[in-house]
What we know:
Elements: E1 3-10, H1 15-30, E2 38-43, E3 55-63, H2 66-73, H3 76-86, E4 93-98
Antiparallel strand pairs: 1-3, 1-4, 2-3
Helix pairs in contact: 1-3
Amino acid sequence: xxxxxxxxxxxxxxPETFLRTFNEEHVPxxxxxxxxxxxxxxxxxxxxxxxxxxxxxxxxxxFPDRETFKAAALSPxxxxxxxxxxxxAKGIVTAYVGS
Length: 99
């Protein structure tokens, strides 16, 4: 059964700087992680009522199975991406794993 890793990011203090750091530093590190079969990044502009949403960014990374996800999550590439993430998103990111 496939596995999805989902990261939800709250509104950052400086959205422009956040996106620049995310795209220029974090995404290249994510691209080195072994095993994903899909990835999707969605910036949320409004909630269903037209208001500024609580969630700013949704990142979903798909894996073919739980074993592949576990191997990826234990890899040095995942560790490097996580360490980088904590330099600019600590306190605003929550991650989930589902199938």
